Amino acid sequence: MPFFSIYHFLALVCVLTLHEASHAWVAYRLGDPTAQRAGRLSLNPLRHLDLLGTLMLFVAGMGWGKPVPVDARNFAHPRRDQALTALAGPAANLILAFLVAIPYTYLAQGSPLWLFSGAVLDLSLVLFFFNMLPFPPLDGSKFYALFFPTSWQARYHRFLNKSTPYALTFLVVDLTFFPEVFGFSLVWSVLSTLVFWLKTAILVII
User: Fold this and answer.
1) Residues with catalytic annotation?
2) CA dist 5 to 8, 156, 178, Å?
């Protein structure tokens, strides 16, 4: 379901900025200054928003920011630290979802802040689940590498490099053309279900 409201646009700016800045911050803390030198260790949205990723959010209901540059050679423990850096963005989105659920629960329904907090909550959960999908170049594909045996690492990374164009093509086709042809998107159907259940659980906890 595409998002078109001004609240979702403002939420997108906040959520994507936090997501990408978290990648940069964790990479920097783990010893890689590449993102910091590129100006990505910042909460300035203009440093993180990607034009195509922003347009895709409004067209297909999902989007992304500019990839944060990472040089794993600077990490003391490349395999572990690269996985933690990949996890940082989705983890930041999940934490933000829990935090923003508080005003969403207690503010007057229909007020501008309630609508904005609801948009941040929804988009945070969408980006959390979307980025944890195992498709390259999403964060999940990099994080899950941590669980493969050492003997499989080189083979897995070759697979990621070769399959990235196919994975991106599938995501674009599924999110833009499948709804027109078949009436639904496979990826969005799965993600919307996951978002619904986790949002419900968060609001119960809060």
Assistant:
1) 20
2) 5, 40, 23
